[in-house]
Amino acid sequence: MAFIREQLQRFANKSTKFIGMHWGETFPFWYVCEYPKAGGTWLSRMVSDYLDIPMPQYSVMPMGCQCVIHNHWMYSAQLRRCFYLYRDGRDVMVSFYFYRMRNMQQKPETPFNRRMRQRYDVAFGAGFNPEDVRKHLPAFIELEMRKPMNARINWPTHIGQWCSPRHEQVAYLSYEELLATPVETLARCIGQFVDEAVNLERLQSTVDRYSFNRMAGRQRGEEDRGSFLRKGVAGDWKNHFTREAAQVFDKYAGPTLIDLGYEKDRAWVDSCAD
Hints:
Elements: H1 2-23, E1 30-34, H2 40-51, E2 68-71, E3 82-86, H3 89-106, H4 111-124, H5 133-146, H6 155-163, E4 170-174, H7 175-180, H8 182-191, H9 200-209, H10 212-216, H11 243-259
């Protein structure tokens, strides 16, 4: 049953993308696009709440009504009303690691997680300890850069497709600015696609409704490795990157990190301890 549902979801996602590229204006769709683990689920829920339209998750049917579509698709000029959310790729890798390990432990029976277990048994060694993040992170980053799974292309390539150059039909925002100034950031991005003024009071209510504290039941920064909402902070990579992990990430994505403004140069690698 899990395999059938996984295949139906995959078919629905591909069909929705096809519909969006050819008839997306009919409904119309809104898109929240990201590389996985950049905060897209959080953003999608807030956009959906403010616009008062559905945000379907894990659907086994293609979309055929106005809604917010959260996705990891590659850039296409045929898509309109796109939010592109990006995040420091080092935090993405750390968040992705915890996400994959949690899923494998909580749902080991699903076809995807069985494939992930085989993948990491080869990379880390059979019987590896998923809690030893600093030991396994370099090999994890290497895998996600060379053979990415969820988005089909790796983080720097995904960023490059969407951001180089930047496109006028896309509203760009970072996870870090969404954390720091959520109302202002959302108002700027939603305002790019609507004619009327954004209602800041209503938007504040949306932000409050989907705050980390309310959704997770704990303060931002308090970690729960068993939760989808693990920590909700920026800069957590500093707690987990070794020099080796930094060197691997820099090899594949050092220039992208600079292009996005997260670092001025590649000297940050030397700041990571062994």
